[in-house]
Every structure is written in structure tokens, then in C-alpha cells.
Amino acid sequence: MTDAALAAVDQKRLAVASQWQLMWWAFRRHRLAMIGLVITVILYVIALVPGFFAVNDPSKQNARAAYYPPQSIHLIDTAPDGSWSLGLFFRPYVLKRDPQTLAAIYTEDPARKVAIRFFAQGYQYNLLGLIPTTTHLIASADPNYPLFIFGADRLGRCVYSRIMQGAQISLSVGLMGVFLSLTLGVVLGGISGYFGGRIDFVVQRAIEFVLALPTIPIWLALAAALPQDWPAVLNYFMITLILSLTGWAQLARVVRGRFLSLRTEEFVTAARLDGCSEGRIIFRHMLPSFLSHIIASITLAIPAMILAETSLSFLGLGLQPPTISWGVLLREAQNIRSIATAPWLFAPGAAVVLAVIALNFLGDGLRDAADPYNK
Amino acid sequence: MLRFILSRLLWMVPALIVVSFMSFVLIQLPPGDYVTTYIATLAASNEIVDQNTAADLRSRFGLDQPMIVQYFKWITGILFRGDFGLSFEWQQPVSELIWERMALTLLLTFSTLIATWGIALPIGVFSAVKKYSIADYIVTFFSFLGLAIPSFLLALVLMYIAAVQFGQEVGGLFSEPYVNAPWSFGKVVDLLHHLWIPVIILAVSGTASLIRVMRANMLDELGKPYVTTARAKGLSEFHLLVKYPVRIALNPFISTIAWLLPNLVSGSIIVAIVLSLPTAGPLLLQSLMSQDMYLAGAFVLLICALTLVGALISDILLALADPRIRLE
């Protein structure tokens, strides 16, 4: 925490501030981390209720809209007689074929105008998986002319809505995977750091071994072992399990390091002399003092998980369609021909990059803020 | 020093045994075996294989024996005869298929390592010396971006730009006439012409994290009194940097090989698949898909073993450079 940050808060408040308050004050001064926090929160809200943010049904195919380009959206409408009106609208594209090459050409229809409405009615979905509703953040006023903000893919499915839907799986894989690796990491790292000696030696070697292995060939081999016809939920769970099988080592190392450095602290010795049980020492005395570090490491581990899921699904060994995740969506952009005709198929990639950057900034800020005595 | 190297070498033995066993178990995991897949492929073209033929095939490939027996046969074959078994799909010994691809993989990884260092080192030093300047912020921004872009996405975008802007197909490591040609001087030159694209793509993500490491190390060193002393003695700024702080800041750099290498190898597999390079990646994926287990196993084993060897080399280098480590 910088001097400036310390000076910014009232001295009296500083003296009685809890560790979490100190962290929050330090964190707030980290501008990039705050931006990261805002973006992360927005993304996870989208992941929670993707249907609300989607415009069209993400699985609905539309033969008349194959490779429909991103819709240009207008704000001001001018009529030939000089009058004008204000309001978001779009002019749907009309499909024509090039007479020679038969390639699809989409041109704006100047005669038609479809308004864009907020909090309007669209396709039906289940809010939080429970409440059926038809309200969407954005919707086309005329259901016959769907709005394709980021265009449509090979089968005429709305890329934008699919990215929103994909956020749910891609972002939750990160959380689930980190949760699983954290469980493994805390148990093994905790045992190793707390008891030390021979157990520590064995766990240490195991961690080093796992860290020294390249993950992709192992993930590929494990993922190839999953039967293709498994139900989507089981497949999803197995993929996160596979990812966390190698992800735990990093977290175990962090936990072990903290345990080792805390073990010799006076307050731990004091607790032991007071006759506290091992469990109470670990959970009541040691855990709170390095929880903030663990949270920071977790935040930095999530983007790695997201990237891993994306890579696996992209190679066709991760999640399988019709499950929608960012990696599955990027498979559409796999061959040069489809990305040459439809560069907007890269859009899920931009979503991945945005999420990973935001989480990295957030994690960096948390790590800096986690140590109030740092600088 | 010798003791350190010896004990480190001894550690490789159990590690390699575990890796070999793990590779074998991994490729055994998929339900069914190659014969099942083979029958399914034949069934797709309306050919029917009866039970006896299937059993014959299984006993010919040794697939009917218990796993541990198969493992021992496999590993002793590799150790004593350099025999990695038979690729079911290609009907060729695995060792004929893999060596050229492994050599190219090694070349790709090694070039990327050099490129990563070559880019990260000067930039890291620069952004530490010019701390909080505009250039430093730009570098920081790009290194975060480099960390966030998955390498396969970068490969795709480059392919797109090359195809649309320059009308060129990016992919492979050789031009048309050299693909099946025997090795010659021309082929090597051609390889170098193609190699830089995957190298750059792979270097980007590694560079990003290394720049941050280098910058942090340099910042720790720059404030120390010996730097001021050197400056007071009248050393030119460049001379001073190269002679003292850079050398010390480099130290943790060597140790990064150990964690950079697994990432590089992983990244190179995906990028190779996207760009269809004749390295281990595409063939590994294909063999995993068709359950060609000896081929897949050989790749997983060799890739993991080579990465472990890389970590070993980096440990020894580090001990050579830093006496504190070998005395521990």
C-alpha cells in the first residue's frame, strides 16, 4: 500500500481498519484493476442470465441468413423531403447472388426500416433456468427481421447471441476448474507445508513433476478418452476435472509457501501454547492471514482455465456442439475459407481476450492489494 | 557441483519411469481399442468383420494381454531396441514416422525459446530503465495483450491477414517442391523462410510474461548502491547496465526455462495443428482421434521426456551461473 493511499484515508479510520478494508483501499487506487473488476462483474452477470442479453435464439438456424454480415445500426433517419427523426434502427440486408460466382452479396434495403427496442419482447427463455420470460435487453421490433449485431454463422445463427450464451459455459468452466484445483491444491499444499518433513518432500516432488510436464498433450490424451456420446453435463464436468488435474500444482505451491512462512510466526506458536487443536490453528489462525493471497492466485488461475477450455474445444476434444462455449464457437473459424468470407466469426475470440485481460488485471490488483505491508 | 548434477540426474530416473507409465495409461484410457475403431471404420463402408478375425487382429497386435504385460513389452522394446511398436493406422513402425517430426518440433521449440529471449530481454531492460514512460506503458499493455491472446487465435488471425491482404497461404514448414524432397541446402533455406511465422506466434505469449519478469528483476537491481557507485565512477549508462544489473537480473531468467518450456511445447502443438506444420502436433491429434495407441504413446512419451530433460538442463545451467543454488 502506497503512502499516498495511506494518507488518503483518515488516520483514525486506518488504525482500526480490518485487513479487508485495507485491501479494498489499496485496491481502489489501482485503476486498471478497477476496470478489470467492472468488466469481470459485467461478464459474470452476462454468464448468469445470458438469455436476457441475447437478441436471437442462439441455437435457431436460419437458412436465409447464412454468413449474414454484422448489421450496421443507424441513429438518425433522414427522409428525401429533408425531415429527420431520431432513434436506433437498422435496415435489414437483402440477399442477392452474384450472377457469375453465385457468391452471396448482402445489401441494405433502403425501403425498409426496423426499430431497435430496449427491454422488448423476443424469443422465450428461462431466466436463471427457472422463470420463463420473453424480455430481452435489446430486440428487433419486427420478429420477421432478426437483428444480427455481430452477423451470423454458416447456419445463420446469431453470433452475438451465441457469444452471450457461450459466456455461461466458458466463464463457469474457469470457476469450476479453479474450485476443483483449489481443493486439491489446498489439501496437498496445506498438508505439505504444515507437517513438513518427509510428506513435504514427496508432495514437493509431485508438484515439480506436474509443473514440468507440458499440459496440452496430456489434456488431449485424457480428453480423447472421453466417449463422444456422453451427455453434455457429464462431458462438461469431466473437461473441468481434466483441466484441474494439472492446475492444482501451481495453487498447491502457493499454499505450501504461505504455510511454511506462517508456521514459525509468533501468533501460531502462541495459539499452539494455548492448547488449540491443529484444525483450529489452521482454520482460525493461519487461514485468515493468507486467504487474500489465495484469492489473488485464484483470480490469476481462472483465465488460464478459460484459455485451456477454449483451446481444447477448438481442437474438437473439449466440449462438443450443441453445447455453446467460446471454444466451440471458434471452431467455426477453423478453416481459412470460412474466415475469409466471414471475418466476424473471430468475435468469440475477442470475447475470450477481453475476459482474460480483465481477470488478469483484477488478479494483479488483488495480489498487490493483498499485502498491506507491501511497499 | 558434480554432486548436484549427479543427484539431479538420479532424479530423472523415477520421473522418466512415471512419465512412461503415465503415457501408456493415458493411451489405454479410451474405451475400446484400435480393433474396435478399425471395425467401426470398416462397418461404415459396409464391410463386416467377424468375431474370429477381430480376435486374430487383437492377438497379432498383443491387445488381448493384460495392460501391465503390454506396458513391459512396450517399454523394453523402446529401451533395448528403440522399437516404439507398430502404428496401426499407417501400418509402419512408429519410429519411422516420428523422428523427423520430433526433430522439427525440437527445432521449432528451440528457435522459439531463442526468439522469446531475444525479444523479451532488451524490451524488459528498456521498460525498466524508462519506468513509467509512455513506451513503458505501451510495452506493459502489449504484454498483457500477449498473455491474453491464445496462440491458436493469433495463428488464425495471421492466416486470415496473409490470405486476405497478401493472397498467400500461410501454413506448413516447406514449399510445395520441398515437402517430400530429401534434405538439401535448398530445403534448409526454405525451412527457414517458413519457420519464422510459427516462431513469432509462439514467442508472443512467452515474451509477454518474460518481459514482466525481466522488468521486475531490473527494477529491484536498479536502485541498489552498486549501480550508483558505477555511475559515480563515470561509466556510460549503457555500459553500466550491461555490466552489472542486467547480469544479476538475468539469473532468475535461466530458471524460467523450466516453466517456459512446458508452455512452449503445449503452445507449439496447438499452433502446429492450426498451421498444419509437419511437427508432432497434428499427427498426435490424429493418432489420438483414431486410437492409434503406440503412435500417440510415443509422442506423449517423447514430448514429456524432452520437456523434463529441458528442465534438467535449465537447473544445471542455473547452478553453473549461481553458486548459491548448488551449495544448498
**What's the mean pLDDT score of chain A?**
79
SS elements, strand count of chain A: 6
Oligomer: heterodimer
Largest sheet of chain A: 4 strands, antiparallel
Q: Could you estimate the helical fraction of the residues of chain A in percent?
A: 55-70%
Describe the structure.
The complex is a heterodimer of chains A (375) and B (328). Chain A has 375 residues and is an alpha+beta fold. Helices cover 59% and strands 13% of the residues of chain A. Chain A contains 14 helices and six strands. In chain A, the strands form two sheets. Chain A has a four-stranded antiparallel sheet with strand order 1-2-5-6. In chain A, strands 3-4 form a two-stranded antiparallel ribbon. In chain A, a hairpin with a 5-residue loop joins strand 1 (73-78) and strand 2 (84-90). In chain A, helix 4 (31-48) crosses helix 14 (347-370). Chain B is built from 14 helices and two strands; from the N terminus they run ααααββαααααααααα. The longest helix of chain B has 38 residues, at 185-222. Classes of the chains: A alpha+beta (375), B mainly alpha (328). Chain A binds chain B through residues 205, 209, 211-218, 220-222, 224-225, 227, 303, 307, 310-311, 314-315, 317, 330, 333-334, 336, 339-340, 343, 346, 349, 352-353, 356-357, 360-361, and chain B through 11, 15, 18-19, 22-23, 26-27, 29-31, 144-145, 147-150, 152-153, 156-157, 159-160, 163-164, 169, 258-259, 261-263, 265-267, 269-270, 273-274, 284-285, 288-289, 291, 296, 299-300, 303-304, 307-308, 311.
